[in-house]
Amino acid sequence: MAGTIFRVQSHKFSQDNIQTTLVCSKCDQVFSKDFLLDLEGQTIEFKCPVCGTAGETDLPYKSAEEREELDEDIEDIEEEGEEEFEEEY
Ligand SMILES: [Zn+2]
């Protein structure tokens, strides 16, 4: 038996949190809620702010594009480090 599910209608990652627009499967009402970035990709249980029914939602992961930007920054730093190392020889 599946309980109440809060379906993610849309979401956006900010610097501090995940801003989601959710739909309650019990009362069909749309509401927005913010989650900590650490909760990305996890299943979170909370109560619907409209009807008060306890349910859960699967939070989205940050998009691949956003992740690639971070990876490129790290690679740039590593490449610079390698160049300096080679010059010593
Ligand atoms: Zn509800």
Short description:
With 89 residues, the protein is an alpha+beta fold.
The gross shape turns out to be elongated
Please, what is the average pLDDT? Answer: 84
User: What is the H-and-E element order?
Assistant: EEEEEH
- Helical element count? 1
Low-confidence runs (pLDDT<50, min 5 residues)?
none
| Termini gap | 66 Å
Oligomer: single chain
- Count of β-strands: 5
Query: How many domain regions?
Result: 1
Topology diagram in text:
Elements: E1 4-13, E2 17-24, E3 30-36, E4 43-47, E5 54-58, H1 64-87
Parallel strand pairs: 1-5
Antiparallel strand pairs: 1-2, 2-3, 4-5
The chain binds zinc ion.
Characteristic terms for this protein:
89 residues, five-stranded mixed beta sheet, alpha+beta, binds zinc ion, elongated, 27% helix
Q: What does this 3D model show about the protein?
A:
The protein is of the alpha+beta class. It has one domain (4-87). 27% of the residues lie in helices and 39% in strands. The longest helix has 24 residues, at 64-87. It is elongated, with a radius of gyration of 20 Å. The N and C termini lie far apart (66 Å). The relative contact order is 0.19. The model has no long low-confidence stretch (mean pLDDT 84). Zinc ion binds next to loops.
